[in-house]
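Quick one:
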Amino acid sequence: RLDGILGGLQRSDFVVLAAIAGIQIKDIDISLEKDMMVIKGNRCDPQEHPNKKYFYQECYWGPFSRKIVLPENIDIDKADAQMDKGVLTIKIPKCESNGKVGVKIS
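Output:
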């Protein structure tokens, strides 16, 4: 589960935004395979109080994972990811060809 927004914007690049505050870059793994992107990691509880019970807790602690189906017309070899103030931004350029070949029926 990713807290906050997760979205894809369509323009010259395919853009994914994920709000994952409270986690270091080294604790995030992004993998791209054909038509799927997987973002996963582990958010450790900075206040390690195993015996305390909270009335309300805003953040989710522990492992998280999100799978995102990607459009066909992108170049995954040119993907770029940046993290700024708890927001992960992944940009993947669109490409002209989607790699599909039509089959003529005779």
